[in-house]
Amino acid sequence: NAGVTQTPKFRVLKTGQSMTLLCAQDMNHEYMYWYRQDPGMGLRLIHYSVGEGTTAKGEVPDGYNVSRLKKQNFLLGLESAAPSQTSVYFCASSYEASPTNQPQHFGDGTRLSIL
Amino acid sequence: GEDVEQSLFLSVREGDSSVINCTYTDSSSTYLYWYKQEPGAGLQLLTYIFSNMDMKQDQRLTVLLNKKDKHLSLRIADTQTGDSAIYFCADSDSWGKLQFGAGTQVVVTP
């Protein structure tokens, strides 16, 4: 199915390792978002992008970097993973900020554990 | 920062109505949303309401918005066992950035 695809679905890292999470969408969406979900909490915004080549910080950006070199891809990087970054990461995309045309589509999530 | 708060747990009998409540603080919120999350799954958008509306109905779902009190509710009519899940309230700003509550665990009993 078309939509938002997150890669990988699961990953276990050791403290200090680096990795990149990939979010890909095939809906020609301008806006893309990375959220994290921790137990007992709602999703919190890490970084977002309002178009190719643009990125901006969200609520919890520390320890993460992002890039949007191609419109369809939004990459989330952990340069030096820490146990506090153990979480489920969700990517979302939308055509515009308002949901009236099309609301945000969410990926299925990436479960990341840092030992 | 701005907050979105909701009760943590709701137990309801099958066939009854469920009401999930949410409060938010950001008076500039443009849209308010209800999402459903089943165990191990992603988020499913149930419905949303524009901030200048006070009610929206969509089949079994009714959303009420009291903008003065910054209170949002979701009513599920004829609750079924398949409605057992975590329900998240969220608001958005003009950039479409979502701010979520902690979620309400809804348990439907036979």
Q: Tell me the helix content of chain A.
A: under 10%
Global morphology of chain B: globular
Structural class of chain A: mainly beta
Unreliable segments of chain A (pLDDT under 50, ≥5 consecutive)? none
Give me the strand/helix succession of chain A: EEEEEEEEEEE
Distance between the termini of chain A: 34 Å
Query: What's the helix count of chain B?
Result: 0
Strand content of chain A: over 45%
Specify the number of helices of chain A. Answer: 0
Order of helices and strands of chain B: EEEEEEEEEEE
Describe this structure in words.
The complex is a heterodimer of chains A (115) and B (110). With 115 residues, chain A is an all-beta fold. Chain A has no helices and 11 strands. In chain A, β4 and β5 (43-49) form a beta hairpin. The N and C termini of chain A lie far apart (34 Å). With 110 residues, chain B is mainly beta. In chain B, the strands form 2 sheets. In chain B, strands 2, 4, 5, 9, 10 and 11 form a 6-stranded mixed beta sheet that branches. A 5-stranded antiparallel beta sheet of chain B has the order 1-3-8-7-6, with no helix packed on it. Chain B starts with a strand and ends with a strand. The A-B interface holds A 31, 33, 35, 40-45, 48, 50, 56, 58-59, 90, 92, 94, 96-100, 103-104, 106-109 and B 1, 4, 30-31, 33, 41-43, 45, 48, 50, 88, 90, 92-103.
